[in-house]
Write a structure and sequence with these properties.
With 127 residues, the chain is mostly beta strands. It has one domain. Helix content is 0%, strand content 60%. The strands form two sheets. A five-stranded antiparallel beta sheet has the order 2-1-5-6-9, with no helix packed on it.
Length: 127
Amino acid sequence: MTQSYAIVETGGKQYKVSPGQKIDVERLAVAGGEDIELSRVLLIADDNDTLVGSPAIEGAKVVATCLSEEKGDKVIVFKYKPKVRYRRKKGHRQIYSRLEIKEIVKPGGETSPAKATKKKTAAGGNS
């Protein structure tokens, strides 16, 4: 069984994803049930080889399905100054999009050596 994974960037954060995994990312402009392609793929790895982008891999993408939009846990912001009776309490709940990863698509055809570097992983070799 080949365990492949990718590192993608969305919403200013990086996520390690593999097919079948469910992740919560910053809110995306996608309705529930729609497919989305995450094209900013920084690394793709499986049992045989590893593709590392600099900074991203040209032509690679991760296909995911948006399951729903959900609110995260409440964060309380409390400002306080002693001796002057200053208190402000405010709450915030971030909205997340829940994605289910369908597949990781490697770049087809040629890949420019300047944009992506292919590394062979070996037990006693260079990584």
